[in-house]
Amino acid sequence: xxxxxxxxxxxxxxxxxxxxxxxxxxxxxxxxxxxxxxxxxxxxxxxxxxxxxxxxxxxxxxxxxxxxxxxxxxxxxxxxxxxxxxxxxxxxxxxxxxxxxxxxxxxxxxxxxxxxxxxxxxxxxxxxxxxxxxxxxxxxxxxxxxxxxxxxxxxxxxxxxxxxxxxxxxxxxxxxxxxxxxxxxxxxxxxxxxxxxxxxxxxxxxxxxxxxxxxxxxxxxxxxxxxxxxx
Length: 231
Prior knowledge:
- With 231 residues, the protein is an all-alpha fold.
- The chain has helices at 23-38, 40-51, 56-68, 73-76, 87-116, 122-137, 145-161, 163-175, 177-221.
- The chain is built from nine helices and no strands.
- The N and C termini lie far apart (58 Å).
């Protein structure tokens, strides 16, 4: 009786776990670090908290670095509590920085979608400038007749100064004013619809920014503020 060859189970490599960070959250955290690093008051507050850190190594290292720069440690701690820095104090200084960062990244994504990434045709260029002009003059409300006139004057003027839009307007004007008027009439209604879509997306972006803020706060400090991992 012949023995059947034993089939060996192939060892599958474990797939590395995906990071909990999404692109937006990772970018927001990077921006938060940059914001904190350029804000003098934030830096000073973080140094004071480090001098009161529960971990002795962090306290001693911070004190050593300050001493190397001729700083008086007692002066830094003169108005500080004698108790170790709490998580609440860290959350307090981190919140505004994270808020700025998450809003910045979310708006950057929105601008890339509507004002940069799609600006390939004369229509797209005009739509982008219309959205910008309308947000500048009347924001999200319905513009008055006078405001609408100003919005379109500004939109056409900026479009004319752009490379893609300027070339298109010049070609239409060379063919005759009627062609330019016809094109503007056609794109005006489309531009209004694009603006409404932009406003809806803007509100969604603001909601996503708030989710990213809460999730990062929870990730960094294990602070439960209705935080959910954004998807």
